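Posting for a labmate who doesn't have an account.
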Amino acid sequence: MKKFIIGIVFVLQISAVAGNSKQTATIASFNAQRLGNYQKDYTMMAEALTNFDVIGVVEVMNITGLENLADALSKISSQKWGYLISERSAGSARYSEFYAFIWKTPQVKLVKSYGFYKEDKDSDFKREPYAALFKTGNFDFILVMCHIIWGEDPSKRCEEVELLPKVYTYFKILSKTENDIFIAGDFNTQPDSKCWNTLLSSPDEIKELITIAIKTTLGSQGFVSSYDNIFYSSKYTKRIVKSGALDIKKLFNIPLMLQTYKKNISDHIPVYVEVKTN
């Protein structure tokens, strides 16, 4: 569903993009939990994200939060980061959010923003998916970000998830030549749900990278659900090295800091996929 708010696509390309000397790159998806509205420890957030090369972000509330994160990442990593925020928010009059991408400019180039998925009906998605084309080394790919509706009725989530094959096909056709497509985000749906059957039955042999065993959300007592995920075509994308969720216990020396992470960063853990770029 469209939410018309005056907005501009911002791209901060602070330095010229150089060739990627690394042999791999790590693509991540992150629900930043009301980025720009909630008080955040941006240094701690940057520590969590700095080892990724390009990050798709959902729940971005305004450009200020994204700018603060880019500044913190630059300080932590001593590298320049570029970013893009969607030209408008997506949602309803009651709640809407922006999509965003943030990336290391020496390693990654933003080739093109494809913008929002064009729905068959205005009510298909509460927040239409958003996509961009990136290139790192010799690997170019489309990253489609999604934030599936929450709500009290799980069937509504399932209805949106079941439309994702159309989203995949839409951006594949729009690009004309690109087959390396990642559909990522917060799906508010467990990976073992039957809602995924349509997407996973695609002739392009789409698979998920995050299983039910990997928890990506935090509740009051610790890890809860596996709502964050990344999907790809195993028929076309052959460069995957590994995938998973950020090990925040190892990174921040927790469990005693689990609630500190939730309070200062997000109630979601970044998920990622590492790919070969040579």
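Reply:
Got it, the structure tokens are right above this. The two ends are 39 Å apart (CA to CA).
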